[in-house]
Every structure is written in structure tokens, then in C-alpha cells.
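Query structure, 385 C-alpha cells:
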């Protein structure tokens, strides 16, 4: 029986290949043995007293890591994660770009509604497309799958694995590959699927890509962000004019910029309420099986290279198209709405009482509502452009 939400639009020039996740049993057993044999460093003052939620502290506690490793090696169930991923339509497509062949994986909910709006949801680092599938009962894709039958779903929702991440192959080995290149591949994905107009959404690394799409690619009609790192007060007077909550948000952004922050640590430190251990292990295990870490680090050549850029504060990347912004107080850089308005045509925003850097994972219901409300308000203004 065909899986619901898997009907490719008739306008697509691609013929996506259905994809199923299935790690071989020998690979799974080998992985478990490696985890069991791995060692954890000795207890130290730092890893005993640290507060992982404090951006200026020492990271994760050794006790947490030891307990997590024991669970990972003995009772963690990867097959449950496979079942969750495979409950959604997954595909791969071939995309040619400057003589290089990209194999791009994406999860999707395709609508049968004639006027459905295409949404491109972009993950970050060290995340993956799992950010939008994470919670068993209320992950973002599940929110929409549960709320609407495929004949009534108002959106085509595309959740790709960025080049180099998880089930997508890595970028070329003979030349540099930057954020603008990733954005171009994502635009080719969306237009190749038959969408002459779409909305791009991003947090973390995805926020840079979404911004570039909004500035450089005509088919991207609107942009929604939940991170706008780097946009800061330009003077003491401007900062003092902010309310006390926004001033605290600016201080948090400075703490991150000054200190920065392992993998599991980021899921703990950058979120408001720490995710369940299995949710962290799902992402780490996925990265292990797909050898993602060395393949996925390339985007940081730009923000931490010889000519660093964070895109958001630069006038070159000002978004003229409708921009939406969701503010979550425990993001690593919760830039106030008033400052985000300096970086684009901000027409919609919402401030939340909870939530952190992994907004789609942490607050899937609120995230989905924000997308629906932003699209409902602004999509009629861009149709026909």
C-alpha cells in the first residue's frame, strides 16, 4: 500500500527515488562493540562541578557522559529510530551542479491540495533532518501529518539533509564549497521538485542558507528564521534603549560569542529544557553510521575562516522579501526582534516564553504554528510575483 504524503507534484522535473533507512546488522553490532570498548576520561574538577547550561562553564559532567555511554552500549535501540524515520516518505534525487553530481536526501510531506505552499525546512549543525522528526508524538512533521490528511495539507514540506550530512553525499573534494553553494543546491532541489515559489525556514546553519536563498534566488519568496546571530546593538545607547529582557538576551549572545562551546554538549547547552537522552543518541548514532562529522564541518570555513562572515549583520545580505522571525529565550544568541528588523524586511515576529536553539525539536507545536501564521499572513502578498 502506498505511503501517504508521498505523491510527487506533477510539475516536478525530478524522479525522486524512494529511500529506506536500514543499517545492516553486522554494522550495528560492530558499532555497539566500539561503544562498549570506548573509554571515558578521568574525573576532574571541571567535569565534576560544571553547569552545562552556563555558556561560561566547563561543558558536560563526566557522570552524565558515563551514564549515557552505558545506556548507549546496552539498552539504546537504534531500530526504533529507523522505524520513526521510515514512517515518513524519504527520497533521494540526483542534482548536477558545475560538473559535480549531488545525491540529496530529503524527508517530505507532499500534499494533494492544488494550492499547497512549498516549505523548505533547513537544519543546522550539529543537527540533521531529525530536528523536524525528533519527538515521537509531536515532532514538526508529525504535527502536520496528524493535523491534516494529504488531500487537505496546505503545504508541501521538504526537509533535506544538507550536502555532506547524513544520507546526502559530500561536496566536491577539488574545490571550496560555501554557504552560497549550499543555497544553490537547495534552490535546485525545490525548483526541480516543481516549486516555482517556496518559503525557506532556517535556524543555526540553516538560517544562513535561508538568508542567502531569500537574497539570491527568485523562487524563494519568503524567509522565516529562528536565529539571527551577529546582529547586535551598534552603541551603548541603542542597547540601553532595549527593555531588560532584550538586554539580557544580548548579554547571552555575547557570552556565546566570547566562549563558544562535543556534540551531546550542544544539545544540552543550547536548549532550554534538555532533550531526552535517546533523542541525543539518535542524532549522534545517525552521524556515526553516515560518517557525517568530517563531511559536514565545511560550512564553518566561512564564519571562522580568514574573512569571517555571519551573513545576518551584513548589508549585502539584507532580505528585501517578507521576513518572519521566531524568538526563543534560551537560544545561544536570542537576538531581540528590534535588532532583527535591521537585517531584513521584518513583517512578522513572535516571542516565546520557552525554547532554545533547537526550536523545532524543543517546541514543535509552537514552531509549526509560527510557520502557519507567518505563511497565512504573507503568502497572499507574494503570490503572482
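Result returned for the query:
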Amino acid at each position: 500500500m502506498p505511503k501517504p504524503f508521498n505523491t510527487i507534484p506533477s510539475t516536478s522535473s525530478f524522479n525522486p527515488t524512494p529511500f529506506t533507512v536500514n543499517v545492516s546488522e553486522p554494522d550495528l553490532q560492530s558499532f555497539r562493540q566500539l561503544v562498549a570498548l570506548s573509554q571515558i576520561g578521568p574525573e576532574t574538577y571541571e567535569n565534576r562541578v560544571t553547569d552545562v547550561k552556563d555558556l561560561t562553564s566547563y561543558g558536560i559532567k563526566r557522570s552524565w557522559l558515563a551514564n549515557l555511554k552505558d545506556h548507549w552500549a546496552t539498552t539504546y535501540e537504534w531500530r526504533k529510530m529507523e522505524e520513526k524515520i521510515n514512517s515518513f516518505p524519504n527520497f533521494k534525487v540526483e542534482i548536477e551542479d558545475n560538473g559535480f553530481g549531488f545525491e540529496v536526501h530529503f524527508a517530505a510531506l507532499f500534499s494533494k491540495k492544488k494550492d499547497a505552499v512549498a516549505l523548505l525546512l533547513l537544519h543546522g549543525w550539529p543537527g540533521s533532518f531529525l530536528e523536524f522528526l525528533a519527538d515521537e508524538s509531536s515532532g514538526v512533521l508529525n504535527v502536520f501529518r496528524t493535523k491534516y490528511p494529504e488531500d487537505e495539507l496546505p503545504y508541501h514540506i521538504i526537509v533535506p539533509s544538507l550536502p555532506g550530512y547524513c544520507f546526502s553525499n559530500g561536496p566536491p573534494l577539488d574545490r571550496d564549497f560555501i554557504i552560497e553553494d549550499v543555497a544553490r543546491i537547495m534552490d535546485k532541489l525545490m525548483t526541480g521538485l516543481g516549486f516555482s515559489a517556496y518559503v525557506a525556514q532556517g535556524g543555526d546553519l540553516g538560517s544562513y542558507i535561508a538568508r542567502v536563498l531569500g537574497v539570491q534566488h527568485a523562487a524563494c519568496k519568503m524567509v522565516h528564521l529562528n536565529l539571527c546571530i551577529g546582529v547586535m546593538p551598534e552603541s551603548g545607547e541603542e542597547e540601553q534603549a532595549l527593555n531588560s529582557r532584550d538586554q539580557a538576551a544580548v548579554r547571552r549572545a555575547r557570552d556565546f560569542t566570547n566562549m563558544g562551546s562535543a556534540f551531546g554538549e550542544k544539545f544540552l547547552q543550547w536548549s532550554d529544557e534538555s532533550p531526552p537522552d535517546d533523542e541525543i543518541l539518535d542524532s549522534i548514532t545517525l552521524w556515526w553510521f553516515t560518517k557525517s562529522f568530517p563531511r559536514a564541518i565545511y560550512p564553518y570555513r566561512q564564519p571562522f575562516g580568514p574573512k569571517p562572515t555571519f551573513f545576518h549583520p551584513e548589508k549585502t545580505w539584507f532580505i528585501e522579501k517578507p521576513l518572519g522571525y521566531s524568538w526563543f529565550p534560551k537560544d545561544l544568541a536570542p537576538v531581540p526582534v528590534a535588532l532583527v528588523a535591521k537585517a531584513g524586511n521584518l513583517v512578522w515576529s513572535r516571542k516565546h516564553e520557552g525554547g532554545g536553539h533547537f526550536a523545532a525539536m524543543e517546541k514543535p507545536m509552537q514552531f509549526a504554528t509560527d510557520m502557519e501564521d507567518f505563511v497565512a499572513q504573507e503568502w497572499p502578498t507574494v503570490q503572482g510575483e
